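In the design runs reported in the main text, the only information available to the sequence generator was the tokenized backbone. The following block is the verbatim input for one such run; it is reproduced so that readers can re-run the procedure and compare outputs position by position.
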């Protein structure tokens, strides 16, 4: 096994190696969600650095679903010129270009969206209100329309952000999503948004479009056994090309007492995968850790903070089997050299121990 072999998918082109750039919010877009020069530089530099697949940050599919200042938008045709330029430049480096589709649900800051955040249920604690059934249908439609827009812009595919307590994850939440209509209650009802969005994307985007989902296996109200069963159903459905498991620590053991002593990666690597591929994210900071993840059964590795620290993380792993990322905290100057603007460096200041004062 080599991290530098190709990885093929059911739909569309293959990845030239086993390295995917994780979706990374960077707050560098313009206020209206259009692409900035800074965001273009940050992402294309990762394509130049050798990532086989470059994923954008979470990009919102509705204005009301914005989660961060300076977030990339995919909810309007005004975003098309920037998206088109970005897709072309990433692909020119031989990387796959994929947009992460996002809606922040109850986590949308009111001061950013100018109204109450919306999510599957009322949440008085954060002042979010429940979507009506009609609004859920519109939400599904807007995810699909955003995917069609990314397809028109020339991206190879889209990833549905179903992790981290954003709107899709909120629908999946068994404790919170007690809706009485067809969008809540049973797992079948709670996961209906995922199926409807994916079916819509498959029927309205070109046949070779790469479609994937990101899931959280635990925390955020998720129950690991439920996520395993959704993962298996998705994997064999033929609708998705890969599932991106957001593990935060690839080699950690499960928190669920029924799965205790099993590592998260082993649970998903051994679950039914059909012809779908498995990507794993979380604390992969060296060539050795990447090799171990693939040896454990992942099809490719998903690199977050390591790719912020080194735009050419894959190339370094290729040159040096013992490569380990630079130690933290790092300096602002280093991050500038790695293609981050002041806005992104400022955001990284929120990640404890990452940037030296
Ligand atoms: C600065 C930053 C921004 C992130 N933004 C997103 C995002 O937009 N979408 C998402 O699904 N995950 C996001 N994540 C999670 C990462 O994609 C990744 O799963 C996580 O950082 C673990 O990988 P790592 O240990 O290699 O950083 C973000 C993480 C960081 C550090």
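Verbatim output:
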């Amino acid at each position: 096994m080599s991290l530098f072999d190709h990885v093929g998918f059911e739909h569309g082109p293959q990845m030239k190696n086993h390295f995917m750039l994780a979706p990374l919010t960077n707050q560098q877009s313009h206020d209206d969600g259009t692409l900035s020069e800074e965001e273009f530089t940050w992402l294309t530099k990762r394509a130049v650095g050798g990532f086989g697949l470059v994923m954008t940050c979470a990009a919102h599919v509705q204005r009301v679903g914005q989660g961060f200042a300076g977030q990339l938008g995919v909810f309007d045709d005004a975003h098309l010129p920037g998206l088109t330029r970005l897709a072309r430049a990433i692909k020119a480096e031989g990387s796959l270009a994929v947009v992460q589709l996002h809606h922040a649900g109850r986590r949308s800051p009111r001061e950013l969206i100018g109204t109450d955040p919306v999510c599957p249920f009322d949440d008085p604690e954060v002042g979010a209100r429940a979507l009506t059934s009609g609004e859920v249908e519109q939400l599904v439609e807007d995810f699909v329309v955003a995917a069609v827009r990314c397809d028109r812009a020339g991206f190879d595919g889209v990833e549905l952000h179903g992790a981290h307590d954003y709107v899709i994850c909120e629908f999946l939440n068994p404790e919170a999503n007690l809706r009485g209509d067809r969008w809540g209650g049973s797992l079948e009802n709670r996961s209906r948004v995922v199926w409807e969005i994916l079916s819509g994307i498959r029927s309205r985007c070109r046949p070779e479009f790469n479609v994937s989902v990101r899931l959280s296996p635990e925390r955020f109200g998720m129950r690991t056994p439920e996520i395993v069963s959704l993962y298996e159903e998705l994997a064999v459905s033929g609708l998705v090309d890969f599932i991106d498991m957001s593990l935060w620590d690839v080699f950690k053991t499960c928190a669920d007492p029924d799965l205790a002593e099993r590592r998260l990666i082993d649970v998903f690597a051994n679950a039914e995968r059909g012809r779908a591929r498995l990507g794993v994210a979380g604390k992969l900071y060296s060539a050795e850790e990447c090799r171990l993840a693939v040896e454990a059964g992942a099809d490719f590795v998903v690199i977050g903070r390591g790719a912020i620290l080194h735009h050419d993380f894959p190339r370094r792993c290729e040159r040096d089997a013992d490569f380990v990322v630079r130690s933290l905290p790092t300096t602002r100057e280093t991050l500038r050299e790695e293609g981050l603007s002041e806005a992104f460096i400022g955001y990284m200041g929120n990640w404890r121990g990452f940037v030296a004062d």
